[in-house]
Specification:
The protein is mainly β. The chain contains no helices and 21 strands. The strands form seven sheets. Strands 7, 8, 10, 11 and 12 form a five-stranded antiparallel beta sheet that branches. The protein is elongated and about 120 Å long.
């Protein structure tokens, strides 16, 4: 680089991409900007392994202007909190284990292997939707548990069925007790309580 005599170089991260750039001021007042455009580098993943639908942050360098993140070739979609050193994204529900890669205008990053754990299937609740005072109904599900899976009702009970005797609203999830991955919530099941019928008086 030759900008003539009486030049004054300064090294700084002018564009905030985590990479140092060279600024050279000339005697006549001109400024010359020499930008460092290294490829993005992934250092760490905040979650690995991660469940589908989990929020994950990538730390590294050179992420400014990031256009995409892929996991095993599947795009994660919209990116959030993109800075020179951080990208946050949500793991898609169709993502599978494989390489995480960041793409920026400067090129493609190194690949970091990420393990993706699938979510359990979403359950459905069945049962009577109304009961009389003094009565009850048993809520059940047709969901079949897989390996290491358990029921998790909205009242935190873990039985396969739930007996209720008051007006209420319940939902059900399936949780994998090893990976910690939890299914989407079932339908919200509403049970109403019917008023008692006043006994007639004979005269």
């Amino acid at each position: 680089i030759n900008v003539g005599a009486d030049s004054s170089p300064t090294i700084t991260d002018l564009d905030g991409d985590g990479l140092l750039d060279l600024i050279v001021g000339e005697y006549d007042g001109n400024l010359n900007h020499y930008e460092q455009n290294d490829l993005p580098i992934i250092s760490t993943l905040s979650e690995n392994p991660a469940c589908q639908n989990a929020t994950v942050s990538i730390t590294g360098t050179g992420f400014t202007g990031a256009t995409s993140v892929t996991i095993n070739g599947t795009s994660v979609g919209a990116l959030s909190a993109v800075t020179a050193t951080n990208i946050t994204f949500t793991v898609p529900t169709n993502a599978t284990s494989g390489n995480v890669v960041v793409t920026t205008p400067s090129g493609t990053s190194n690949a970091v292997v990420m393990t993706i754990n699938a979510l359990p299937a979403t359950p459905t609740i069945t049962g009577a939707t109304s009961i009389c005072q003094g009565g009850n109904t048993t809520l059940t599900t047709t969901a079949t548990l897989g390996t290491n899976e358990a029921y998790l009702w909205s009242d935190n009970s873990t039985n396969s069925t739930l007996t209720v005797s008051t007006a209420c609203t319940f939902s059900l999830r399936i949780i994998n007790t090893v990976t910690g991955c939890t299914s989407a919530a079932s339908n919200a099941f509403v049970v109403t309580l019917n008023s008692s019928i006043v006994a007639p008086t004979l005269t």
